[in-house]
Amino acid sequence: MAGFLVFLLWPTLRGIYLSFTRYNLLTPAEWVGLDNYRRMVNDPIFWGSLRVTIEYVVINIGVQTVAALCIAVLMQRLTTSSLLRGIVLTPYLVSNVVAGVVFLWILDTQLGIGNEILGALGFDHVAFLASNEWVIPSVALINVWRHVGYTALLLFAGLQAIPGDVYEAARVDGAGELRMFWRISLPLLRPVLAVVLIMTVIGSFQVFDTVAVATPGPGGPANASNVLQLYIYGSAFGRFQFGYASAMSVALLAVLSVITIVQYRLTRAGETDLG
Questions:
Q1: Which among 63, 169, 177, 240 could bridge 24 via Cys, Cβ 3.0 to 4.6 Å?
Q2: Does residue 16 sit within a domain?
Q3: Looking at the domain assignment, is residue 191 inside a domain?
């Protein structure tokens, strides 16, 4: 409770208060009412950052969920090796900063091993992290590589909770693996999958470190990777506009709250079909 009050509730309440002020850290906060929110509504960079963030979230969540689900099913159906399950989790043990630095080298346009492989296959080199078209998909796939094992283990735990006799009854009726997946595994996995989606969506909207490390400049090239968290950070610690940065943070909090509630209701995360 003490940790919750000191490190979560108080910073949240103070951030909401600062969103109604003009504050540069050096002078006392000056109350300005809704000025920061009016500025935010008319700020094209804010809307561009939100668009870039949503693009990242869609790619990251789409690829990560499908890949994690496939890995979880394969682990359940094909192997009981704890070693293989541990290997799947290994990328998650690498920090986002380290992953960003490693892939910055791998995807380097001139010397990166990824582009060297493309060249050996007869393709032109691609500026994965330095072009408007490729930077966000590249960052999304870097984070997919890092987080997919952890997500797969969560889904695997959900699959382990499905009673084995359900599958046995389906086999007696002549159902194959694909049919059992669509008719048994996926429906009964829905509550776990819903919680995993809620967690990954929230985490994806908060992407910062990989973008800050792996892309050229803050949000480059030409704001193509200027995700919302990076813009908030730049406004606060780059331009000392803490009031405006707090307003954008509150807006992000509101967006995530709405998305979480909608996801929870649509996926019926609090219900199960096992009964």
A1: 240
A2: no
A3: yes
What's the rounded Cα separation, in Å, for the pair 50 and 128?
Answer: 21
CATH number of domain containing 239: 1.10.3720.10
Q: Are 164 and 109 in contact (CB under 8 A)?
A: no
The verdict on residue 157 lying in a domain is yes
Q: Which domain holds residue 155?
A: 29-38+46-90+135-267
Number of domains in the chain: 1
Relative orientation angle of helices 135-160 and 96-106, to the nearest 10 degrees: 130
Model confidence pLDDT, tens digit, residues 133-158? 999 999 999 999 999 999 999 999 89
At residue 126, the 3 state secondary structure works out as coil
pTM of the model: 0.91
How deeply is 143 buried, as exposed, middle or buried, from its count of CB atoms within 10 A (0-12, 13-18, 19+)? Answer: buried
Segment 29-45, tens digit of pLDDT: 999 999 999 999 999 99
Q: How far apart are CA 210 and CA 208, in angstroms?
A: 6
What is residue 275's predicted lDDT score, i.e. its pLDDT?
A: 62
Is 19 inside a domain boundary? Answer: no
